[in-house]
Amino acid sequence: MGFLSDRLARVKPSPTIAMTTRAAELRAAGRDIIGLSAGEPDFDTPAHIREAAKAAIDQGHTRYTAVDGTPSLKRAIAAKFARENGLDYAPAQVTVGTGGKQILYNALVATLNEGDEVVIPAPYWVSYPDMVLLAGGRPVIVECGIEDGFRLSPEALAAAITPRTKWLILNSPSNPSGAGYDRAQMQALTDVLLDHPQVWVLSDDIYEHLVFDGFDFVTPAQVEPRLKDRVLTMNGVSKAYAMTGWRIGYGAGPEMLIRAMAKLQSQSTSNPCSISQYAAEAALEGPQDYIADSRAVFQRRRDLVVAVLNECPGIACPTPQGAFYVYPSIAGLIGRSSAAGTRIDSDEAFANALLEETGVAVVFGAAFGLSPHFRISYATGDEQLAEAVARIRRFCEGCN
């Protein structure tokens, strides 16, 4: 009998964290490394949010809270959904966790039985399939290539659904591609789901506010109210308000599901950090001008990255609708060799060679379920970003 759980063998460590760790090791060894692997805004948390956290400490809000969120934060979240998404949720239909990842994990563990299927469009955020596996489910991966705009089609969704399908995970705008679903595209998917009442939707809206060129964000329960009773809408403060380290995510859905998730959380982490909850409340209820300001910076960076990458031999880089990632194809580089003689036979080989030979850390596409691609996070300073894409261009020009 082995000591470690068989369940653990189903999953792999996060490739994004692995690449970020490797870049940090090289930097510590004295290498000039530019990290474009982590999905973390480089801005400071807005001042009024930081002040709210300090005030919470001074006022003694340093004790346990309700397991899945303070009543006042739940009210602020419900108000946010009503104000920004036209969704009516009572506080009892809201749950707060230690980051958006816990909301997703709680929902899957609380609902999946062995063999239940979860449809996941690829490219996907690296944690989705592993969370499903840990919960005993079976990920059903549907490839959505560059020719599809990295979006799931209604035909592909219908083909992937079986009697064992319990969830569809939908992330718009997407990590890693930045692709978003407009209202018509979302409506086409919800029309399919209306015909399959056993399928629930886990809508990951974490990049809701990071959309460009006038893109109109929509979420499934908003587009099709008849689906609301089988949708969990997940969001958080990490990306929109530069609060990644504060670890606050939240979700809203049917009260039966929310109670089940709270039951699970009560026997795992219990409540999220009390101070972070007061900070999140200030984020949702306070001034929102920070969002527009940061969005403008990210759009400028996106335009720079897309323009330079599309000048690189062997690379094709679509323009994303949102988030702070691009997901270029390196199909034109497969089979070639770098200037240092490294054979590029996969996107993982490309990412490793790029890091070792130029000091630029990116994440290879196979980690997100769709090759041959790589992901760049442009949530980094302008000067470093310009230098990084210049290095990538020189690397590609040196391939033969």
TrEMBL record:
Annotated GO molecular function terms are: L-aspartate:2-oxoglutarate aminotransferase activity; pyridoxal phosphate binding
Cofactor(s) for this UniProt protein: pyridoxal 5'-phosphate
Q: Which reaction does it catalyse?
A: L-aspartate + 2-oxoglutarate = oxaloacetate + L-glutamate
Q: What is the protein's species of origin? A: Paracoccus siganidrum
Q: What is its EC number?
A: 2.6.1.-
Cross-referenced CDD domains, in alphabetical order?
AAT_like
Family according to the record: Belongs to the class-I pyridoxal-phosphate-dependent aminotransferase family.
Q: Which UniProt keywords apply?
A: Aminotransferase, Pyridoxal phosphate, Transferase
Q: Name one GO biological process term.
A: amino acid metabolic process
Recorded hits in InterPro entries, A to Z, give: Aminotransferase_I/II_large, AspAT/PAT-like, NHTrfase_class1_PyrdxlP-BS, PyrdxlP-dep_Trfase, PyrdxlP-dep_Trfase_major, PyrdxlP-dep_Trfase_small
Question: What residue stretches are annotated with the Aminotransferase class I/classII large domain?
Answer: 32-392
Top-level taxon: Bacteria
Entry keyword annotation includes Transferase: yes
Per UniProt, subunit arrangement is: Homodimer.
Pfam families under this entry? Aminotran_1_2
The protein depicted here goes by the name: Aminotransferase
